[in-house]
Amino acid sequence: MDWNTLASALFGADHGIVRTGDFLHGDVLFDGAPLTIIGTTHHAPIGVALALAQARLVLDTMARHPARPILLLIDTQGQQLRRRDELVGINRAMAHLGMAIDLARRRGHRVLGLVYDQALSGGFITSGLIADACDALPEAEIRVMRIPAMARVTKLPEAMLTELSQANPVFAPGVENYVAMGGLRRLWQGDLPAALRSALDDSPTDDRRASDGKARGGRRLAADVVQRVLHAD
């Protein structure tokens, strides 16, 4: 689903979201209450400029609209692989975006992520995976690395990784596997406004991804490891 169709389904044809290049931004009304929309489109690579533009809007929302919810619309191919961005500090720009989102959460803003198209790598880690909760449309594509690339990095045969992906969500791309691992809270199907309403009503304030992954059988050990670290002497 393209971003304009999604926005119209959620907020009506006069939604007020603007596209500036690959950057989506705007203020919308939902059930009579304002939301800040921050997002990307066209499988945007997240470079320094785009990371800083998103962070700026998060900070502006905190300054001008305390406690207003923020909805992140996610469609990214990951970080920008370009020498210029590496030289000017893409790692710091993306960290700045992640810290801005985390600060918004700590200041009482509900921050929700919605993967409506594609979410890969660092572009997803510094947005939807830092939100209070991240959901997705069923047709979205989410992965960190394709199996052929994973085989090159791990030096393991593709056939072995393919076999592992059939039983272990950690090795497999796809929204259902990210739900199983707890990275995604739920999929939005059918009535999209109702799904957003539910997401706003029950967004958690604590990080439940590890416990969700354990309960769903997608990550069986992460929650226990977290507790052991937290309670270590």
UniProtKB/TrEMBL annotation:
InterPro entries: ClpP/crotonase-like_dom_sf (IPR029045). It holds the Pfam family MdcE. SUPFAM superfamilies: ClpP/crotonase. Transmembrane segments: none annotated. Residues 205-215 have a biased composition (Basic and acidic residues). Residues 198-218 are annotated as: Disordered. It comes from the Bacteria. This is Biotin-independent malonate decarboxylase subunit gamma. It comes from Pseudaquabacterium terrae.
